[in-house]
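Trying the structure run again after the queue cleared.
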Amino acid sequence: MSRFYGSTGDKLTIWGGAKGGPAYYEGTFSANGATVTGAWVYPGGGGYESTMTRI
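Done. Tokens:
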């Protein structure tokens, strides 16, 4: 399994395989850049929400 991490502006996308694949995480940075809130999306449903905080 490969991973591709991309960020554009206030968005973060992590693909759980090839870039553009069906399993991915999409999050949004807070205004101060200290947190990213988003969710994993999996083909066929499922996934989970997460919040990451810079320490």
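Residues 13 and 26 are 5 Å apart (CA to CA). Worth checking whether this holds up in the mutant runs.
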